[in-house]
UniProtKB/TrEMBL annotation:
This is Fatty-acid peroxygenase. It comes from Noviherbaspirillum humi. Residues 1-23 are annotated as: Disordered. Keywords: Heme, Iron, Metal-binding, Oxidoreductase. GO terms for molecular function: heme binding; iron ion binding; monooxygenase activity; oxidoreductase activity, acting on paired donors, with incorporation or reduction of molecular oxygen.
Length: 446
């Protein structure tokens, strides 16, 4: 992601000369030009899993691989404070959010999110998303063309809000979807996309604060256990209710990442298009293959490029001495394409996940480690479930054409997508929609 406008204090001196160092005063322009490939290109050139660079005139140490992920996600070793540029932080997390907390304060706040991830709760979100997809399918059949990314965001926004106990009608669904989409799209830049995301986020925060206030005033009663009820009633480690602004931020931090899964869904549709023999297997509702396919989508395609942390204390790793305050970037995309972990990593091969058992530090599109103890995204089960549900339905319940378009995925753009957003046309029903079709059965089977 872009490091523009990053004004955090530099680490305590430059990185030691024992590791490769990029020459020159600053390499931000190279990062923006190369995007997801910036760090992998240099790991390959140096023949190492660690190098030093300067981004936004700040010393940075870049690492990748399973060992690096273990190092980075060691509990208590890093803080996320001052580790993200403000232009990204204010769109993706915001001040006061769970990711900005450490130790017991982080653990207590993280428990709030993990409580939302119970199997029954996740299953309900899958069913709500399936209902939304089927409703959209019926509408698509009268339309000449569909941009799948736009439609996927609309589906997920509506499903997520209903699941979270958030009232949303057609009048408010469109602006909320647009706002969440702008936050996601603007997080990887410091230009107009970022400014638009920040501007629209202000509308979202006012809306979310009003919801929290209505719940606390007894004017709105969301279902018990829903995200809105949990955020409005959560007591932090100090025994006090969350500040209204912070509670609103955390509600957004449930809804916005759910909408972001639309990118994985589009990448899954692209993979089905490029591998029609795989789509045929998915259309049959093969649960084992669906799981493998979904995980390969998450491994193969670009999502979050990297995560950053500031070292809380000195330690040694891979022959390098890290000092308190050092800024470290873990390359998620590079680790997911690490040939030491993945045979032929630049090929899309779902079968690599047959019988796979994760170490917790190998497949890391949304972070590594234990989500209960560290900063790993708590919503990975939701991501996988939403992806499987969408692909089951797209493969099994409709047929469509993919007209000629630009399906390239530019790695210099963060976050990226197929350039066209993945356009489909001539949508036809493949089988009658029903509760027992592949879109639901494939996510219930283990």
């Amino acid at each position: 992601m872009s490091m523009l406008n990053f004004q955090a204090p530099s680490a305590t001196g430059d990185a030691a000369s024992s590791i490769p160092r990029e020459p020159g005063l600053d390499h931000t322009r190279a990062l923006l030009r190369e995007g997801y490939r910036y760090m992998p290109n240099r790991f390959a050139a140096h023949g190492t899993d660690i190098f030093a660079t300067r981004l936004m005139f700040q010393s940075a140490i870049c690492v990748y691989g399973e060992s690096a992920a273990r190092m980075f996600y060691t509990p208590g070793r890093f803080t996320r404070k001052l580790a993200l540029p403000p232009n990204a932080l204010l769109l993706l997390q915001d001040l006061g959010s769970v990711v900005m907390r450490d130790g017991e304060a982080h653990h207590r706040r993280k428990e709030m999110f993990m409580a939302l991830m119970a199997p029954d709760s996740v299953q309900r979100l899958m069913e709500l998303s399936a209902a939304q997809w089927r409703s959209r399918f019926a509408q698509w059949q009268g339309m000449s063309r569909i941009v799948l990314h736009e439609e996927a965001q609309a589906v997920l926004c509506r499903a997520a809000c209903e699941w979270a106990g958030v009232p949303l009608d057609e009048r408010t669904a469109v602006p909320r979807t647009r706002e969440f989409a702008a936050m996601i799209d603007g997080a990887g830049t410091a230009g107009p996309r970022n400014w638009r995301g920040l501007m629209l986020r202000r509308h979202t925060e006012r809306w979310a604060r009003a919801l929290i206030e209505e719940v606390r005033a007894g004017k709105l009663q969301p279902p018990a256990g829903s995200a809105l009820a949990v955020m409005a009633g959560h007591e932090d480690s100090d025994g006090r209710l969350l500040d209204v602004k912070v509670a609103a931020v955390e509600l957004i931090n449930v809804l916005r990442p759910t909408v972001a899964v639309a990118r994985f869904i589009v990448f899954g549709a692209l993979a089905m298009h490029e591998h029609p023999e795989m789509r045929a297997i998915l259309a049959r509702g093969d649960a084992e293959f669906m799981e493998m396919f979904a995980q390969e989508v998450r491994r193969y395609y670009p999502f979050i490029p990297a995560v950053g942390g500031r070292a809380l204390q000195a330690f040694d790793w891979s022959g390098h001495h890290f000092r308190a305050g050092d800024w470290v970037l873990l390359d998620l995309y590079g680790t997911n394409h690490d040939a030491r972990l993945w045979r032929d990593p630049e090929a899309f091969r779902p079968e690599r996940f047959r019988g796979w058992r994760s170490s917790g530090f190998d497949l890391i599109p949304q972070g590594a480690g234990d989500p209960h103890q560290g900063h790993r995204c708590p919503g990975e089960d939701i991501t996988v479930g939403l992806l499987k549900t969408a692909l089951c339905l797209l493969a099994g319940e409709i047929d469509y054409d993919v007209p000629q378009q630009d399906l390239s995925v530019p790695l210099s753009r963060m976050p990226t997508l197929p350039a066209s957003g993945f356009v489909i046309s001539r949508i036809r029903a493949r089988r009658p929609a029903g509760p027992d079709n592949a879109g639901i059965t494939c996510i219930r089977k283990k």
